[in-house]
């Protein structure tokens, strides 16, 4: 779920539920039933499930990703006719442009066993992204316990929680992925809390079927397959191009055919981050998936043609990774059966992809600018803006204090009087500028170097004249 504003969970409110994942004795981490058909093992996910006392009643294995959790929790082992294992927890991915205020519950817990001697379900997955996280509520992906403590079944493991926020104000003790109790307790799951600027690969958010992943040493056709995921990984960070580099698209918009591409060349010495989208389904199935990636800086160029990709592999590709040879990658924009398409968003921060692939694999390389920290506070600019540390009155993703002026421009002479926007006027005519930012706030009026009169003392609006029209 993607939310453009804020999300508020009131006291007593809840997002999620218990036991919405794999059913009893099902899933990649399902608990097993013992040789005697009783005292089953608990399910695994973020850790191993607890074992039961019956011989062979093993807890389920750990699986999935700690940093990009998308899996359901697994079901606990059944105990013959005595009871069914608890269901696994569900999966929630929530991306919020503003703040998450949680005074209630955000949960994907595993269910306790149904009836004695069955294993508990493992917790599910919670993947939250926001500018800010606050409140007094709880966030949980806990494993389910065995039923009533009477017997020897195992507890379910905790699930996986990943939270990426600029400001984390919620008590960390209220974020749990605990294992359920049992003859052997389920192991704890994983909890990852990071700022967005510390995300792998400079990625702010992923959507749809896209998952951030680390590539193996070989990503040729049939070497790194998935029919359910579009993988994205980072190739180079803060990399200075040693030579000019051709790209297939640079302009924002939707691309469905080769004739719509906007080829260009990035000059040598351009500093870039390089990222790769990779989609290679199993057994040459014709599979259609879609997703998107939002980066922490502007997209400079996109490569979708196999020749362009292969020419760039030795320049910006990941070292010690074998890339596809020949023309077996890229997008088939002119193939009516493939229906491949991609798009660059209006703010040039998001790359969207949709397409079919089977015989070939689909790859897209995205070159982005290196994110800025213009005010030198060790926080990338986008986090300063999202958390309110800095303003961005003209919505250009540059903190106001890093620009000469942000505000409302008023041009006055005998013929021109306009408000609400920056218009062209001759340099010799003065611009009277009224700032809507209170005086005394660092980095605003004080840093307007082209003023004829200083910012007046005390609170209020700043009124000064600029020698030339240079409002942005």
Question: Tell me about the biggest sheet?
Answer: 7 strands, parallel
Percent range for β-strand residues: 25-35%
In terms of structural class, how would the helical and strand content be classed? mainly beta
Average pLDDT level:
80
Number of strands: 27
What sort of overall outline do the alpha carbons produce when their principal axes are compared?
Answer: globular
Question: What's the total helix number?
Answer: 2
The total domain count is 3
Q: Which descriptors would you attach to this protein?
A:
472 residues; mainly beta; 7-stranded parallel β-sheet; 5-stranded antiparallel β-sheet; 2 helices; disordered C terminus
Summarize the structure in words.
The chain is mainly beta and 472 residues long. The protein has three domains: 1-194, no CATH class; 201-369, no CATH class; 404-472, no CATH class. The protein is 4% helix and 31% strand. The chain contains two helices and 27 strands. The protein has helices spanning 306-316, 381-386; strands at 2-3, 7-9, 14-18, 91-96, 99-102, 105-109, 125-134, 138-140, 160-168, 175-176, 190-194, 203-208, 210-212, 230-240, 245-247, 253-255, 264-266, 271-279, 287-295, 299-303, 341-344, 350-357, 362-369, 408-412, 417-419, 431-435, 462-466. The strands form six sheets. Strands 1, 2, 4, 5, 7, 9 and 11 form a seven-stranded parallel sheet that branches. A five-stranded antiparallel sheet has the order 12-19-22-21-16, with no helix packed on it.
């Amino acid at each position: 779920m993607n939310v453009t504003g804020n999300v508020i969970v009131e006291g007593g409110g809840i997002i999620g539920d218990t036991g919405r994942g794999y059913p009893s004795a099902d899933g990649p981490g399902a608990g097993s039933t013992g040789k005697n058909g009783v005292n089953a093992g608990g399910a695994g996910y973020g850790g191993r499930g607890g074992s039961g006392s019956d011989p062979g009643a093993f807890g389920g294995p750990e699986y999935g990703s700690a940093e990009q959790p998308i899996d359901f929790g697994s079901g606990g082992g059944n105990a013959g006719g005595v009871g069914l294992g608890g269901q696994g927890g569900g999966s929630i991915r929530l991306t919020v442009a503003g703040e998450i205020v949680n005074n209630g519950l955000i949960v994907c817990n595993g269910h306790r066993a149904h009836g004695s001697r069955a294993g508990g379900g493992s917790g599910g997955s919670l993947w939250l992204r926001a500018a800010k996280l606050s409140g007094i509520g709880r966030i949980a992906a806990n494993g389910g316990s065995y039923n009533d403590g009477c017997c020897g079944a195992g507890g379910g493991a905790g699930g996986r929680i990943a939270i990426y926020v600029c400001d984390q104000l919620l008590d960390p003790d209220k974020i749990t992925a605990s294992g359920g109790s049992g003859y052997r307790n389920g192991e704890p799951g994983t909890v990852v809390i990071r700022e967005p600027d510390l995300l792998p690969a400079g990625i702010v958010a992923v959507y749809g079927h896209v998952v951030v992943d680390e590539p193996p040493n070989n990503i040729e056709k049939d070497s790194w397959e998935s029919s359910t995921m579009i993988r994205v990984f980072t190739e180079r960070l803060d990399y200075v191009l040693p030579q000019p580099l051709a790209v297939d698209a640079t302009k924002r918009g939707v691309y469905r055919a080769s004739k719509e591409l906007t080829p260009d060349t990035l000059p040598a010495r351009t500093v870039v981050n390089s990222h790769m989208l990779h989609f290679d389904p199993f057994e040459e199935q014709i599979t259609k998936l879609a997703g998107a990636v939002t980066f922490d800086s502007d997209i400079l160029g996109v490569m979708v043609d196999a020749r362009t990709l292969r020419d760039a592999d030795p320049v910006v590709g990941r070292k010690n990774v074998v890339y596809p040879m020949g023309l077996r990658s890229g997008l088939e924009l002119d193939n009516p059966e493939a229906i491949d398409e991609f798009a660059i968003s209006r703010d040039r921060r998001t790359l969207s992809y949709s397409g079919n692939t089977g015989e070939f694999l689909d790859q897209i390389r995205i070159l982005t600018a290196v994110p800025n920290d213009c005010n030198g506070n060790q926080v990338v600019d986008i986090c300063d803006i999202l958390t309110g540390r800095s303003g961005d009155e003209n919505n250009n993703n540059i903190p106001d204090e890093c620009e000469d002026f942000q505000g409302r421009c008023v041009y006055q002479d005998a013929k021109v009087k306009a408000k609400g926007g920056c218009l062209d006027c001759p340099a010799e005519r003065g611009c009277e500028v009224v700032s809507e930012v209170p005086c005394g706030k660092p980095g605003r009026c004080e840093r307007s170097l082209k003023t004829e009169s200083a910012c007046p003392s005390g609170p209020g609006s700043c009124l000064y004249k600029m020698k030339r029209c240079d409002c942005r």
